[in-house]
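Example 325, ligand iron/sulfur cluster.
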Amino acid sequence: MLRAEEIKRLAAEIGFSACGIAPAEALPAERAGEWHRWLAEGCQAEMDYLVRHTDKRLDPRLLVEGAKTVVSVAVNYFSGEVDKALAQQAAPLRLARYAYGTDYHEVVKAMLRQLMASLGLEEGRDGRPFVDTAPIDEKYWAQRCGLGWRGRHTQIILPQQGSFFVLGELVLTETCDEYDDFCESRCGACRKCVEACPMGALRGDGTLDARLCLSYLTIEQRGDLPAEAAEGMGRCFYGCDRCAEACPHNQRFAHDTHIEAFRPRQALLQLQAEDWFGLTREQYQLLFRKSAVKRAKWEGLARNLEAVRQNLAAQGDEAAQEGEK
Ligand code: SF4
Ligand code: SF4
């Protein structure tokens, strides 16, 4: 049998900011109903992978045969270095915060593998690690494992830490001696994130309409951006942190990560707006090696930069007009 105290102690030693544990079982009917309604309304946009394997997503025992326990973990990726560096520039362009460091999929998966090994568990035989790549409802499990609650901005808020965290899970075939309680929402009457969203993407119930969300449009969507997206993007050409930045829990509790791989790459912080507008495919390859930004591909990034440039040029922005020359 697994020991909760040992799992949490080892998780903290490895660098996880939070770790919680719950029995592996089917998601409650209320959460399953929310998933089905969300999909039926088309809020997943063109992310067809969210439609596939819904049965597994709603029950981790179908994902890992014999699963008995889910361990949910969170890793802080916030860095105030980004703000300090961009404050030095007159008219900076920016990326979503998580995109300044190394791809979290690789970093967190490696940490989860280390946790399994420290517990004497073997991947495949005793369970599997997941980081945002398999059909598992990671936000549900983070809340079920007591890490935090799903805020109206859809992200998990860790009490007294905020929401600038990436999540990961171990689905294990052993039972554990102690499980955590579900974490109830503490958003109360607050709607700051909903009000801050430039696209009206947040539905107010902890879900969002991906068809309107800049994180989806600038990273996942292929082809042209909708006209209103460029205006909403402002100076951020990859992802969007607007709702998270508006959240009082982040404003109060966000703190620097101690995970070296998540510290921002200096080369990214040094680029000025005109450098971004003149970015070549070769520079992109070098700057974003082992970066989650590769998900948008060069074509997507170039499309985003052009949308921002045109929008800023229409507003009379000098750097954007320099990039036009
Ligand atoms: S990431 Fe941006 S566009 Fe998406 S919900 Fe948050 S504020 Fe709105
Ligand atoms: S801004 Fe307010 S409503 Fe939105 S996630 Fe934070 S606490 Fe919840």
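Summary: The beta strands are 18-23, 69-76, 94-95, 127-130, 149-150, 156-157, 165-172, 236-238.
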